[in-house]
Amino acid sequence: MKLKGGIYWGAGCGGCDVAVLDLHEKILDVAEKMDLLFWPIALDFKYDDVRAMEDAEFDIVLYNGAIRNSENEEMAKLLRRKSKTMVALGACAHIGGLPSLANYHTKQSVLERVYLETESNENPDGTMPLERSTVDGNELELPRFYNTVKTLDQVVDVDYYIPGCPPVPEQIFSALSAVFIGELPPKGSVIGAGTKTLCDECPHEKEEKEISIIKRPLEMIPEPGKCLLEQGLICLGPVTREGCGARCINSGVPCRGCYGPLDDVYDQGVKMVSALASVLEPKEEKEIDKVLDGIVDPLRTFHRFSTAASILRRKKV
Amino acid sequence: MEEKEASQVLVHLEVDGKSVSLAEGSTILDAAKLLGVQIPTLCYTPLVEPYAACRLCSVEVEYPRGGGKVVTACNYQVWDGIKVRTDTDKIRRIRGMIVEMLLARCPDIQVLKDLAEEYGIEKVRLEKQEEGCILCGLCVRVCAELVGAHAISFAGRGLDRRVATPYDKSSDACIACGACALVCPTKIIHVEDQEGREIIHEELSLGPSKAITLPFMQAVPNIPYIDTEHCIHFQTGECGYCAKICDRDAIDYELQEETIEVDVGNIIMATGFELFDPSVMGQYGYGRLKNVVTSLEFEHLNCAAGPTGGRILMTDGGEPSSVGIIHCVGSRDENYYKYCSRVCCMYALKYAHLIKEKTDADVYSFYIDMRCFGKGYEEFYHRLLEEGVQFIRGRAAEITDYAIDSDEEGKLIVLCEDTLIGALRRIPLDMVVLCSAMKSNEDAKELSRIFSCSLGSDGFFIEKHPKLAPVSTTSDGVFIAGGCQGPKDIPDTVAQGAAAAAEVLSLIDRKEVEVEAAIAVVDEDRCSGCKLCNTLCPYLAVKYDEEKGVSVVNEALCKGCGTCAAGCPSNAISARHFENRQIFAEIEGLL
Q: Would you say residue A277 has pLDDT above 80?
């Protein structure tokens, strides 16, 4: 019997959906095994169609994007109810992703920045989005914009996670194949990725580390074939799950951590901080500070993709 | 070696009526030496081939078949049955004639005068010349055959014959080894520096005075070493005299330094200390002013086996008439080392005592506090007070050679505040000893990394516990003793060394060690081999396994400190008893 599937996007960029499309001809293999009943970016469906379905009628739902507003949350809860297996697809649903960097701001400051301060905006009346407004006597309702961006599993029960920003198409396919043949690991597992860190599949030569300088990628051309972290670039490879095929590394760019932490790692960014701190070469406080000055934006460097899932979660207000 | 093997055949002869057998190829002089018969020589040395230039060793030989003649003992090879007579009237007459002729050439040479007396030459009948060289050629042969430098040779012919350097010019071929001066029978060759000064103790050099020497008198093992920089063999490829005379064949010029790896269960670090170099303290002029010496240099000067044979001499060779001793140079000093070096007060007192004992010099001791804390130390201080040493309480501000009156001319003037009389003083002295601080070794940091024992802020190794484990370190099986642990005197050092040895013995005796149970373990399925943890372990227990591509923890070395577990970015290392879930459970319990 053909499986029933759905793909939905919350607060995301659509990159995950495109990654699914990037399966190219393999998408036909997917279509052979599974009917996609719901996929707003590619096919025309209405929310009511979903609401009309039986509970747990979907065999699998891939939810990408973070939970940013009430609509994201409502749909996440609805799809959860309608599906047997709920999969968080991509970094946003998995660990918050880039949208969760907004957690270092407040709802108010985000809206002000977007609607009032942005240089490319012309908004002389200072119009701001309202949850409810009346136009020509008709009441309009917009989803409520949350103060804090959440991961999918902070809102609903999630069965599996496919990490990545975006996930590598081959890995999406391998995860879906596992679903099709019913060979899934225990609930809560990360699928479509490895169990070790990126260093395992990183092609660079690794030595014992002693870091005496920290630079940004734009400030240097790294020596090829040599561990980027040893060369002074903050590479999150040591704290990031393998599975992407080290695409960034192979392009000479350090890992930014989109595949998220390994199992049992409580906080990816903090883990990197403690790992980095332990391999700094200088031992005197002043010298250490000099090296650390090379990290321009530590918060967003170490928690670029994982703010929502971090211990910090958001800036205190 | 070849000579010895080839000379197995023995020959028998008589010397002055005494029979002797010795190897074929030996000379009459060898035979005489064996029998203790004296034959005078001037141009002979066992270092080079005999030359028979001076003819003084003339002896009579009687052949076994009858007949005989007068020969030179130094180069006449013995053969079976000959009878040698060394002290006949004829021989005495011949030698007397030789001495008379030599003395006529060189009337002022002591060794010839002595010989003349011995052979009864009262009056030299020949015309006297004023030469010193008897043209025996010993110097030339030693320089060529032994040293291999070929720096001097005979020049001229007949009456003009003399020993000279090429074209009588200062020669680059001369390596200034002094061998020619050493062998010269008339002692008319002198080694001088280019300004013609006699060298007394050049900058108090602590280097060896010979190219082959013992490191120091009490060295263990007590085996000499070759200073290849100064050894003639290493400069010219010749000489090799030490190898020739060593009957154990123990000298091997081919030997190279090598690194020997030894597997041991315990290590005692007794790497000692370094002396602070006071030349960085410009005010004391060390290295700039003559006769300002460090305590260690002064000790060397005092040493009976030192360059002056234990005499306290200034660089011009004279005895000082006044000596100053400055305490706390670099130590108890905010600018250099804040700590007290502990030993200086006592050795400064010892120096004061030795100077008083060996010379008539006045001794001034510039001190901050007298720290005479040991058994009998305070009593020694009181003895010195009675010996008339001038103790000036106050740190010396400066040493200068800038004289302001005639009393200070040519002296070192120590400027200081005498806090006991409340006055600034200028004290002119001939010599000043700087009691330099004891400081930790330059490579202590590296050692601490290699042996995983921590360094204090003063650079000395830290013991595990100052009272309960004074010679142990945080690494099991690594112990410390002596100056590397902190400044201390010889009795304390010996006590620590004995304590460390006892600690090691007790471990060896037990045959087994207890290791920590709560250690770190690597989950090899999770480890990606990023090597991040490799440098973290203070006990060097974490290593990368090239074969498996993962890092592994050596269970015997791990102390369970958890540093690697905290640093591991993949959570592949967990510290037993302190796993994440245990810690979180504890936190939850508290909350």
A: yes
Amino acid at A42: A
Single-letter amino acid, residue A254 = P
Asked if A197's CB is within 8 angstroms of B528's CB, the reply is yes
Cβ–Cβ < 8 Å for B366, B416: yes
Q: What is the pLDDT of residues B280-337, one digit of tens each?
A: 999 999 988 989 999 998 998 888 877 777 889 888 878 999 999 999 999 999 999 9
Architecture of domain A3-99+148-180: 3-Layer(aba) Sandwich (3.40)
Question: Which H or E run includes B33?
Answer: helix B28-35
**Contact flag A239-B569 (C-beta cutoff 8 Å):** yes
DSSP letter string over B288-318?
Answer: TBTTEEEHHHHHHHH-TTSTTTT----TTSP
Tokens for B505? Answer: 């013995």
**Omega of the bond prior to B221 within 30 degrees of 0, cis?**
yes
Which residues lie below 8 Å from residue B236, measured CB to CB, with a gap of 6+?
B147, B148, B149, B175
- Say yes or no to pLDDT of B208 above 60: no
Using the structure block, give the residue that is written with the tokens 């000479």. A252
Task: Give every CB contact of residue B572 below 8 A, 6+ residues apart in sequence.
Answer: A196, B522, B523, B524, B526, B527, B528, B550
Whether the pLDDT of residue A192 is over 60: the answer is yes
- Whether B232 and B302 map to the same domain: the answer is no
Q: What is the DSSP letter of A99?
A: G
Please answer whether residues A186 and A178 qualify as being in contact, where contact means their C-beta atoms are separated by less than 8 angstroms. Answer: no
Q: DSSP code of B534?
A: G
Q: What is the DSSP letter of A80?
A: H
Q: Which domain holds residue B362?
A: 274-439
B325 and B192 within one domain: no
**What b/e sequence results for B371-408 when a residue is b if at least 16 CB atoms lie within 10 Å of its CB, and e otherwise?**
bbeeeeeeeebeebeeeebebbbbbbeebbbeeeeeeb
Q: By the CB < 8 Å criterion, does B213 face chain A?
A: no
Please give the pLDDT value at position B3.
Answer: 47
Mean pLDDT of chain B: 89
Distance from CA of B571 to the nearest CA of A (A): 6
Distance CA B203, CA B590 (A): 71
Is position B266 within any domain? Answer: no
Return the residue in A264, A272, A280, A281 with the most chain B beta carbons within 10 A, the one to mutate for interface testing: A264
Q: What is the reported pTM? A: 0.58
Give yes or no for a contact between B44 and B74, defined as CB atoms under 8 angstroms apart.
yes
* A208: nearest CB among B526, B534, B580: B534
Q: Is residue B10 in a domain?
A: yes
Nearest to A311 by CA among A269, A279, A278: A269
The pair of three-digit structure tokens given for residue B379, joined into one six-digit string: 């009593």
B447 in contact with chain A, both atoms CB, cutoff 8 A: no
CA distance A250 to chain B (A): 17
Listed residue (B303, B308, B274) closest to B482, CA to CA = B274
Q: What tokens appear for A91 in the block?
A: 């970094």
Decide if B98 is inside a domain.
no
| Buried/exposed B293-332: b ≥16 CB within 10 Å, e otherwise | bbbbbbbbbbeeebbbeebbbbeeeebbebbbbbbbbbbb
